[in-house]
Predict the 3D structure of the following.
Amino acid sequence: MAYKFKIVARKNDQFGVQFLYNAEVMVWSESYKAKASAKNCIESLKKHVADAATVDLSNGETGSGYRFEMKKSKDGQFHVVFIASNGEPMVQSELYTTKASAKNCIESCKKQMAETEVVDET
C-alpha cells in the first residue's frame, strides 16, 4: 500500500501537511508559517495517532487528550478531525457519505501513520 506524508507549499510562503493513500489525500493540516511546524505536526501524528481515542460527536460523545473526532455535517455527511492534547485541530478529512467511511479513514491513520515515509515537496 502506498501511504505517505507530504509537506506541501501553500500560499504566502506557508507549508501544509497531507497524509495520502496512493494519490488520494486522506487528511490535511492547516497552513504553517514555518516548515519546522509542519514537520512537528507529522512527528506528533506519528507519535500519538495509534493510541488516540475516537469520539463520535454525532452521538453526543465527548473526549479529551489526543483524539479523533467524527463530526456530522448539516447535509448528513461525516468527516474526521484529529485533535491535539491542547484541544487544537491538527488534521481533517474530506466529507464522507457514510459513517463507516469516516471510521475507515480513522483506522487507516491509526494503522499506517507511525511508519509512513515523509516526502518534502516544497
Notes: The first helix runs from residue 35 to 48. The chain has a mean pLDDT of 95.
